Amino acid sequence: MDRTQELLKKSNALMEGHFLLSSGKHSDKYVQSAKLIANPKYCEEVANIIAEKVKKDNLDVSLCVGPAMGGIIIAYEVARSLGVGAFFTERVEGKMKLRRGFEIKNTDKILLVEDVITTGKSSFETVEVLEALGGKVVGLSCIANRSKQTEINNLKIYSATEIDINSWDEKDIPERLKNIPLVEPGSRHLKK
């Protein structure tokens, strides 16, 4: 077991039950990274693991951006470790936007920083916003990569850990989950 998974377990961030993920898929396990992030020492350690992987590839990142809610704090910590700025995007009427006076320059090489990547759907909503504003996203990063991929849409994933957790479309949910109350822990559908 790697250090990030040790910290996820230590902080009770690996949960079991029946979860509806932000991607729309169902899962029997969930990584509630907010429980890890709640401990600043754990968050800093995991951010440093991500930053070291990014440095090894010489990405020359100038900015980290985390989608709200889960990416905000870890993006800040990764940015601090890399010595660059940190912004965040947020949902406005269901669409990801860059607000609060943050500005993207066409010279920005952006590392997108998430808490967990499952399908990359939320990540690429943010990539589209950032690139439409003139930035260049040079990599994806996260605390936990559940996607079973090393890159998505030609962007390499820099994760602190890879976790193999099953997920299913609603029509394919295993019988054993059908009688377990469904929990929707993500933030994609929160009303503002």
Give, in spatial order, the strands making up the sheet with the most strands: 5-4-3-6-7-9-8
Spans of at least 5 consecutive residues with low confidence: none
The helix tally amounts to: 6
Helix content estimate: 25-40%
Strand % is 25-35%
- Spell out the helices and strands N to C: HEEHHEHEEEHEEEEHE
| Envelope shape | globular
Number of strands: 11
Task: Characterize the main sheet.
Answer: 7 strands, mixed
Description:
- The structure is a single chain.
- The chain is globular.
- The protein has 192 residues and is an alpha/beta fold.
- Helix 3 crosses helix 4.
- The protein has 6 helices and 11 strands.
- The strands form 2 sheets. The protein has a 7-stranded mixed β-sheet. Strands 10-2-1-11 form a 4-stranded mixed β-sheet, with no helix packed on it.
- Strand 6, helix 5 and strand 7 form a beta-alpha-beta unit.
Q: Gist?
A:
The protein is α/β, with parallel strands linked by helices and 192 residues long. 30% of the residues lie in helices and 33% in strands. It has helices spanning 3-10, 33-37, 40-56, 72-82, 121-132, 175-178, and strands at 14-20, 26-31, 63-67, 85-92, 95-98, 109-117, 136-145, 151-152, 155-162, 167-168, 182-183.
